[in-house]
Amino acid sequence: MAINLQAIGASRDYSVSLPSSSLSASNFKSQRSFLIHNNHKNLILQKSNTNLSLSASNFKSQWSLFTPKSTIFQKSNTVFKVVKSRVTCSADKTSPAKKLRQILESPGIHQGPGCFDALSAKLVEKTGFDYCFTSGFSISAARLALPDTGLISYGEMVDQGQLITQAVSIPVIGDGDNGYGNAMNVKRTVKGYIKAGFAGIILEDQVSPKACGHTRGRKVVSREEAVLRIKAAVDAREEIGSDIVIVARTDSRQAVSLEESLWRSRAFADAGADVLFIDALASREEMKSFCEISPLVPKMANMLEGGGKTPILIPLELEEIGFKLVVYPLSLIGVSIQAMQDSLTAIKGGRIPPPGSMPSFEELKEILGFNTYYEEEKRYATSTSQTLRPGGYSSTSSYVSDIQQRTPDVTEQRSQSPQDPVVEVITPDVYNNYGADGSRNPFSGIWSRTLRVKITGRDGFEKLDVRIPAGFLEGITNIVPALGGVNIKELLNDAAGEVGGKLLLDFNDTIGDRIQVFLE
């Protein structure tokens, strides 16, 4: 007969199944789904009238496992429950933190792109990712156009984070930098991030002002201060009754050594961190060494796009090494910068970005929720208008009645000489070759023809190919500003008798693109 053991804690629930004939600590080692980690001492197993006491050191030697004081396994109908002294969080099951914990407990590795505003977070969600995280590097760039060197403040990060979390339903991990000060600042930061709607918070051990990861000049605080930051974060979480996921990051790999970063990661796990993160690991071997410590605490990998110190591996490789989360901090901000630079270069050269390089206006409206807004707006549409009066709203008829009571002379005059309703008749205009004043109609003759505008880049690739009615020539320079100085009207008049396909213009603009205008 098997005995099921279920661990119920503030951060997560776990269960293991053991043979009823054996309840030794070694049985736990083979059960990878069971986890308790807190810096306390005793564990008591109770089965019938037999007590078995195991010290935390026994578990540590096999698991690096720390169990809370007065943890008790109580048998009830062959089911043992772990009653922990840690305060149980009161967060709702559907809270962002709860969703993130469910992700951590689910199989496989989970990817999280780094967002920097509400729109980028919404795009992450629409693409189907389970979660995202706020990149301090990207937010500093997008919000301040400044480097990630400690210049952005706690208040600015919380403000940006609140806009992001409100825009999506997936959990968001917030970059809490170094907590913006000492342990008391860390507590304020954690509570602020919880109120902003974050599912998790990344806290690092750098000094103030901090330096960006994978760059020079990084320094870390002492071991003691680093661990106290994590303990302060755990205390803040419990004080506010939240289950926010605490991601403990150390930058000591590059600032000190690999051994130092491994020591700190173990200490962070003992202090109550939910996820461990060593920044700027320099090889596969270092990544493996990291994943071997505190094996039951999830690990986060950082794939710095564009060339950092850590090898770029595919998710499957990272999962095989032992990572649970992988983040991509620069992809979205990087491609955004490149796309904006390309578009500005095109506009400077007298053209607009080609249709294939950007969403259509309809696609933009769909992404931003215009259609959803219009559908929801219909629910609140009224069939008759209402007029606001002091003390509330009243219908138009009651308001008119009130006016009539206050102005009897006007009402009386109107009743004596009623007027028939005025009917407005709209007569459509009919386009002829010439208007009433004898001028040429803009949609007749040669002006009813179509112009084809084609732009080919210096590399031979087609950048633009559009057709415009000749009657709308006034708007052609909005599409191709380089045609602003060309008298196309004169060219059209000269080509009045030409058949379709005639080339009217063929020249290169200031950046070398070939611009051709055909008459169709």
TrEMBL record:
It comes from the Eukaryota. It catalyses: D-threo-isocitrate = glyoxylate + succinate. InterPro entries: ICL/PEPM (IPR039556), Pyrv/PenolPyrv_kinase-like_dom (IPR015813), Pyrv_kinase-like_dom_sf (IPR040442). Signal peptide: none annotated. It holds the Pfam family PEP_mutase. Residues 384-419 have a biased composition (Polar residues). GO terms for molecular function: isocitrate lyase activity. Residues 384-420 are annotated as: Disordered. This is Uncharacterized protein.
